Amino acid sequence: MTGDEKVCVIIAAKNAQDTIGRAVRSALAEPEVVEVVVVDDGSDDKTMATAAAADDGTRRLDVIRFKANRGPSAARNHAIAVSRAPLIAILDADDFFFPGRFRRMLAVKGWDFIADNIAFMEKPDPLYPPADFSPRARPLDLKDFVLGNISRRGAPRGELGFLKPVMRRAFLDAHALRYREDMRLGEDYELYARALIAGARYTVIESCGYGAVVRANSLSGQHRTKDLETLFIAERQLLSAGNIPPQAESAMRHHCRQIGRRHALRHFLDRKRDGGAGAALAYALKNPSAIPAICGGVFRDKLDAAHRRVRPEKPAAQGGLRYLLKTD
């Protein structure tokens, strides 16, 4: 392993005492990892102590605590600031690495960002091996990345923003790239989009080294209307900068409109919850441009609920694992 192949794993954690130990141990088990930085983002449980207890004695683990919650972007930025390894890997506190992840990733050359497949599961088991997909490296450009985050009826949810890449610190520093600390939803998508706009060589391999645990109470499943609004504003700012490659601009505008429609619907539902049907109707009448999004969203929600009653989702195959990237 050369100096350029050394990895720092950064973990932002909030009230993660039940999972943080598994995450830390999986990172420390990878020989390419020379630093693991855990930032306890204002937890009120035993997250910090549990993370520290997972130390393997190799002096690679650093656990830092924020007294008040500042959000995952601030936690990750702080971890980047205090770490030194040339490669930065993101690990969520709920998740873990399968053995050999970085060995397969670092065998690929010529990238600024590299991501692998993700196995989604409801019951975590780091010892249950994922399918043995061939790595098969391919480039990911801005257009395909954005299109991979757009949801379409009858198709799997757009999820490429969930990718957990290894990032070169030199590229992040050269382009002053850090997470936007006002974002608590879509902060990964926004950072990767800015990196691609800046010319990042983003490579994706199909082999699976990341295990993601699906929880109904995860942060990504608890976003607020304000979080959608911030994501919508952030993407409009990217578009207004005027440096989007022409082949990707249409896709980004499509994604931005979709976020805008989701925000309008959530705002309408908030008004209905807080003030009743009358307040919701008044909001719609004052914002006529939002009416198509509201009507369409309500109709789709009811249609999806009816579809689930008639045809429940089939359980995931292959030991309960569902994979982010389509593979042959």
UniProtKB/TrEMBL annotation:
<dbReference type="Pfam" id="PF00535">
    <property type="entry name" value="Glycos_transf_2"/>
</dbReference>
<comment type="similarity">
    <text>Belongs to the glycosyltransferase 2 family.</text>
</comment>
<protein>
    <submittedName>
        <fullName>Glycosyltransferase family 2 protein</fullName>
    </submittedName>
</protein>
<keyword id="KW-0328">Glycosyltransferase</keyword>
<dbReference type="InterPro" id="IPR050834">
    <property type="entry name" value="Glycosyltransf_2"/>
</dbReference>
<feature type="domain" description="Glycosyltransferase 2-like">
    <location>
        <begin position="8"/>
        <end position="108"/>
    </location>
</feature>
<keyword id="KW-0808">Transferase</keyword>
<dbReference type="InterPro" id="IPR001173">
    <property type="entry name" value="Glyco_trans_2-like"/>
</dbReference>
<dbReference type="InterPro" id="IPR029044">
    <property type="entry name" value="Nucleotide-diphossugar_trans"/>
</dbReference>
